[in-house]
Design a protein that fits this description.
105 residues, alpha+beta, 3-stranded mixed β-sheet, 34% helix, globular
């Protein structure tokens, strides 16, 4: 839970989001139990106003560079402005099931 907390704290401090979800989805992948390697992030912030999706993701990747070099293997990002979030009615896509590694049929 330490990596998840670090991610949440950094995103809170940098973006002051109106909505933030950081979900550890490692259990959905072929990793050891209690891993913190795969995360899904939903973040809604005015800091994303006027920025394309790629620029938003680059901001988040730069902020979380230490985690991405170490324990974090995958980061699913869903970045929205408050207006976009309202249009989506507070819903972000769910992550698909993992089909890699030993989970493949």
């Amino acid at each position: 839970m330490i990596v998840q907390q670090e991610i949440e704290q950094r995103l809170q401090q940098q973006f002051g989001p109106g909505h933030l979800e950081v979900a550890n989805e490692s259990h959905m992948h072929s990793v050891p139990e209690n891993s913190e390697t795969h995360f899904r992030v939903v973040i809604v912030s005015e800091a994303f106003d006027g920025k394309r999706k790629v620029a938003r993701h680059q901001q988040v990747y730069a902020l979380l560079a230490d985690q991405l070099e170490g324990p974090v293997h995958a980061l699913a990002l869903h970045t929205y402005t408050p207006g976009e979030w309202q249009q989506r009615q507070g819903e972000a896509p769910q992550s698909p099931d993992c089909l890699g590694g030993s989970k493949a049929g």
